[in-house]
Amino acid sequence: MAHVGFLGTGHIAAPMARALATRGHSVIVSRRNETVSAALAREHDSISVADNQEVLDHSDVVILSLRAQVAQEVLPRLAFRSDQTLISVMAGVTLAELAEFCAPTIHISLTIPFPLSRQAAARCRSFPPRPSLRRCLVQKIRSTQFRLRSR
């Protein structure tokens, strides 16, 4: 199972973290929202809480769930790895910006979690296609991946 980290622990990240922990993944969440992160750790033995850099240091897949203005402040100060897969659920942050903020990571996808993720039965649509994203989320949070077509 993947080691999945979350930067940001709000209304979008918390249900996703619960779903992944239920699936047997090791999940580490940031302290961005102390109340939510502490509750997640109490609910699931496979969820732990750490600071942002520790989340990155211990995660193969990192889900970015910050507000755009927070992402612009926080992400450039962190040390990402080239072998990590990043999945952004953030509105208002482009792939180009993420590539700049999160270098040297090159495996970056944008996704939109749908409301049923709370029950671990939602689809997460993502771009660009990433096999690691599909492997991580395929059973409980089904992943539909998009490809852009030239006009």
Describe the structure.
This protein is an alpha/beta fold and 151 residues long. It has a single domain (3-145), classed as NAD(P)-binding Rossmann-like Domain (Rossmann fold, 3-Layer(aba) Sandwich), CATH 3.40.50.720. It has six helices and eight strands. The protein has helices at 13-22, 34-43, 52-57, 68-74, 95-101, 131-137; strands at residues 3-7, 26-30, 47-50, 61-64, 85-88, 107-113, 123-127, 142-145. An eight-stranded mixed beta sheet has the order 3-2-1-4-5-6-7-8, with helices on both faces. Strand 4, helix 4 (68-74) and strand 5 form a beta-alpha-beta unit. The radius of gyration is 14 Å and the shape is globular. The chain starts with a strand and ends in a 6-residue tail after the last strand. Mean pLDDT is 81; it is low at 116-122 and 138-151.
CATH class: Alpha Beta
Distance between the termini: 39 Å
Helix fraction bin: 25-40%
Q: Which stretches of 5+ consecutive residues score pLDDT under 50?
A: 116-122, 138-151
Which overall shape is indicated by the principal axes computed on the Cα atoms?
A: globular
Find the CATH superfamily: NAD(P)-binding Rossmann-like Domain
**Proportion in β-strands:** 25-35%
- Indicate the mean pLDDT: 81
Q: What Rg is obtained from the alpha carbons, in whole angstroms?
A: 14 Å
Reported by name, the CATH topology is Rossmann fold
- Estimated structural class: alpha/beta
Number of strands: 8
The CATH architecture name reads: 3-Layer(aba) Sandwich
Order of helices and strands: EHEHEHEHEHEEHE
- Tally of contiguous helical segments: 6
In the sheet with the most strands, the strands line up as 3-2-1-4-5-6-7-8
Query: Domains counted in the coordinates: how many?
Result: 1
The biggest beta sheet is recorded as: 8 strands, mixed
